[in-house]
């Protein structure tokens, strides 16, 4: 995963250097979102499938709360 994470970091930096707003999504789930959320410069995370799938077991309120907690913890300086 370290190689893929470095590719994401490089892509974020490239986009920022070009003046783009950088968002991330596709394939984010409860086990990898923290590493991506910790990358400085990402404006928005798009998480769909993992959230809906988890909501089947814990409800949307619980699924969103868990994901939000992971993202906020990872994004702290």
Automatic annotation (TrEMBL):
GO biological process, one term: pyridoxine biosynthetic process
Assigned EC number: 2.6.99.2
Domain of life: Bacteria
InterPro entries on file: Aldolase_TIM (IPR013785), PyrdxlP_synth_PdxJ (IPR004569), Pyridoxine-5'_phos_synth (IPR036130)
First and last residue of the signal peptide: none
Pfam families, A to Z: PdxJ
This protein's UniProt keywords: Cytoplasm, Pyridoxine biosynthesis, Transferase
GO CC annotation terms, alphabetical: cytosol
Gene Ontology molecular-function annotations: pyridoxine 5'-phosphate synthase activity
Protein name, UniProt field: Pyridoxine 5'-phosphate synthase
């Amino acid at each position: 995963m370290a190689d893929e994470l470095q590719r994401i970091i490089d892509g974020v930096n490239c986009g920022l250097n070009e003046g783009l707003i950088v968002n991330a999504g596709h394939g984010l789930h409860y086990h990898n979102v923290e590493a991506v959320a910790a990358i400085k410069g990402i404006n928005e995370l798009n998480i769909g499938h993992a959230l809906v799938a988890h909501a089947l077991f814990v409800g949307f309120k619980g699924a969103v709360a868990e994901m939000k907690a992971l993202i906020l913890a990872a994004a702290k300086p």
